[in-house]
């Protein structure tokens, strides 16, 4: 029986008024038995007039951004988010958080989520030219790498499903490996690939900075409340298998892909790397190099809007009030330009 036909939504454990749905994925290609992801839907989806949004989180992350959901539902979009396998709501006891050895494995839950959205929102009968009643995919950080690669494969292998995609919004996508240029050489790349194959679950030795988490969480210097089991302040350990999967995905994107729909790429206007919290990280990306995001954004597709948001954080929608307002304004401008002035504000 399909996920769509047998779905049983339940009250979400993290967000009041939201609901969640397990997405069974069958046998894990990484050898951990039966696995599942989790689809979340926002309240107000019955008022859908403009289509739907599917949001995909990043590394050491899960969906908790209720304000982002409200922005889209207020504009007539049904809002959904997926917690990927071994992430957030889908993380089980004994799991290695976020572990995967091929980003293409995520196609299974993303396609399952799309099928649910299309069936629930009545998009099955829409035509390919009816962009006002289709799905906008949104991805943050690693999710901003996973989603364009998925859409490129979907366009090539499953055009019937791809026709339901209207646009792509990327929020500080992880398009290259930050740090010293040495890390991006063929020698280091070959080492990462080799260790990813033979020691996939071995943790990469590195020092973890809690600067970003400290800037966000209400218990430290931020204004956002979220579950630290799903999004710890200093992040989850990085494994060689996962890092090799990310580098393979980045290399594929660098050769050029085509998501097949208009894309908006948001990023901060500056990067500030630091070992610990400083007030400077409140107005900069302290996780990724924004110059790399700017460099590679054009490789996503044929129609890409790239916008630097002054003083934004790594997650531009978790920035301080002024840059956050600017970021949402850029999304509104993009919606109006791509889909017409009929999108309500």
TrEMBL record:
It comes from the Bacteria. Coiled coil: none annotated. It holds the Pfam family Hydrolase_4. Keywords: Hydrolase. The keyword Hydrolase applies. GO terms for molecular function: hydrolase activity. Residues 49-275 form the Serine aminopeptidase S33 domain. This is Alpha/beta hydrolase. It comes from Gordonia hydrophobica. The lineage of its organism: Bacteria, Bacillati, Actinomycetota, Actinomycetes, Mycobacteriales.
